[in-house]
Amino acid sequence: MAQASGAYLVGDYASALMHAQRAAAAGEPRGATLAGHIELHGLAGAPDEEAAVRWFSRAAERGEPDALIILARLAQAERGGLSAFQARDFLSRAAETGDARAALEFGLYLMDTGDPARAARTLEWLRLAAESGHPPAFTEYAIALDQWVHGPNDPALALPWYERGAEAGDAHAALQAGLIHLAGEVEAADPATGADFVEMAAELGLPAAMGQTALLYFQGTGVAADPARAVSWARQGAQAGDADSQFLLAYALATGEGAPIDRREAYLWVLRAGQPGATSLAGDPARAQLEAALERALDPAVAARVREEAILTATRY
């Protein structure tokens, strides 16, 4: 197996395949998994999904979780001669090996099936993955506890796992932890801690968290009010395409709160906040009101040019 790994690392995939096949023949499941990987991705010739499945199946017979997980994914996509119904068995066998990644994959698979009869088992697999210290499982388990329709919908249970996910660098977990603290609906809630988590999510690059952080600094919620800092975060979120951030930036530029008044730029951002998109504020009355006020304040020719600019740059935001 060492020869197979060494050849693979230097890019000699033909030799890696040969040595991996020999290792597999000697009973080494990692050799079979590596041979399957090389065949699947065509690293030593043309891709051969059926050959890959044969090698992965050989490794799976010896309980190799990586091979079982890959077989499950191929089955879900109905590749290599596999059928979708086989995925559940592959994942179940992988999870039973005690592998945290497999426990997470199996838990997520069960969540996707949406069967309430399996809710307790689903949560158990996700819990095992999280308690094994697998970072991606922290957030997924928290979501299952907090938001999954068949879960307990208990933010107090979810909060410690969101916090662990945040500490592991997951921006979405940080935002959710922050929002739970700020909502004050759990005993451990603390606005300052919530603000810290929301800003952590913003620092990790989550556009929605940038808008939330800007709002906290505008309102002085959990932090000392700081309009200039609020505008800085709003601008970052706006440039990243978050509509709430775009609206907050437009408001600041229209009113001079935290930034010099610039009604032309404010009009541009309020228009962008209303453009179609996942976070669009097209139907928001406050946005529409600000748009109308800025349009009245601008010279009609200037307003027309800004509207044209907003349309021309729509794909950027």
Automatic annotation (TrEMBL):
InterPro entries attached to this UniProt entry: Sel1-like, Sel1_AlgK, TPR-like_helical_dom_sf
UniProt-listed SUPFAM superfamilies: HCP-like
Record-linked PANTHER family: ERAD-ASSOCIATED E3 UBIQUITIN-PROTEIN LIGASE COMPONENT HRD3, SEL-1-LIKE PROTEIN
Protein name according to UniProt: Sel1 repeat family protein
